[in-house]
Amino acid sequence: MRDRPEIVCLCGSTRFTAELRAANRELTFAGVIVVAPGEADEPLSDEQKARLDALHLRKIDLADRVVVVNPGGYVGESTSREIAYARDAGKPVAFTDPVQP
User: Fold this and answer.
1) Residue environment code for 32-69, b if the CB has 16+ CB neighbours within 10 A, otherwise e
2) What is the pLDDT of residues 14-28, one digit of tens each?
3) Which of 32, 46, 54, 94 registers the highest number of CB atoms within 10 A of its CB?
């Protein structure tokens, strides 16, 4: 028996904001603590993007497992790096959709 709720880190392209929010909502109502990518209303500078990417890896470190939100099977370059990082850290990784070949 665990002494705290499960922690799940959502990963996925920020182009899927609505889908990430829906997954966050579903998991939260299931009693899971959710950490998710940061959101921005305007384009990010390279420095801001790098800072957010590094922060997201720390979120993966906190998580018990990772859920990749990948509508249509899409997994981009940043998300692929996050998946590799999570797997290297021994975190289970699940996908919302089958991954495109």
Assistant:
1) bebbbbeeeeeeeeeeeeeebeeebeebbeebeebbbb
2) 889 999 999 999 999
3) 32
